[in-house]
Amino acid sequence: MSDETDGAGAREAAVTRETAETDIEVTLALDGDGESTVETGVGFFDHMLASFAKHGLFDLTVRCDGDLEIDEHHTVEDVAITLGRAFDAALGEKRGIRRYADRRVPLDEAVADVVVDVSGRPHFEFDGTFSQESVGEFTSDMAAHFCRSLATNAGLTLHAGVEGENAHHEVEALFKTLARALDDATRVDERRGGETPSTKGQL
After folding, report:
1. Rounded CA separation 66/19 (Å)
2. What order of strands is seen across the sheet that includes strand 22-29?
3. Which of 32, 85, 174, 202 is deepest in the core (most CB within 10 A)?
4. Which residues are bridge partners to 101 per DSSP?
5. pTM of the model
6. CB 179: neighbour CB atoms within 10 A?
7. Residue 51 gets which letter from DSSP?
8. Range of 187's domain?
9. Tell me: the pLDDT tens digits for 89-144?
């Protein structure tokens, strides 16, 4: 695994991860236009990551060669790990960010909520169940596992919940809400004058 930031104040990162199960490249720009190129081999997961980029206004590339002959678990988990590390690298010392965010987003009958603290202290709580076991080749419960792995590796305190009647809607609402919350929490608040938003002086 390797992390690389582009420096010069750019909130960008490129991270790779190679294991016996997956080979992953991720690039992330926090202050982007929502453009994405995603190739994981899991169609619905690609759709969710593209939606995540679009609604978070992140520029994102994800390329993953995973052991899909087994199932999608390692692909989804390891992409989340790599993306989480990219967020952490792109944020650097987290100076001036808003840090906290709370979002609730509907999709037809489904609704998801996310509360996030870019705290440097990984913690994840999830409330809800998915109405169907899978969406295409994507096991619905992997959506919550994606959030957990992302939070652990990005250093987020993340509380998420979902309710509805259609797993496609529930999972998509969750990814969109996560994107909007992370966009809010990672934005720079000019009033802070570049100070780290913590009485400790660091996150």
Report:
1. 9
2. 2-5, 12-18, 22-29, 59-66, 36-39
3. 174
4. 116
5. 0.93
6. 24
7. H
8. 2-192
9. 999 999 999 999 999 999 999 999 999 999 999 999 999 999 999 999 999 999 99
